[in-house]
Amino acid sequence: MLAAIIVLATLGKLSDGLLAGLEKRFLAWRDTFNGQSRED
Length: 40
What we know:
- It is a single chain.
- The chain is mainly alpha-helical.
- It contains two helices and no strands.
- 0% of the residues are buried.
């Protein structure tokens, strides 16, 4: 039982790190995008 908890916790940490890296890579453009200004 304890081994299953440790394995699941490790897999959770790995998947969290992977998703954080993918988010940083694919959504980096959002940090610098200010939108288009319309002057009507």
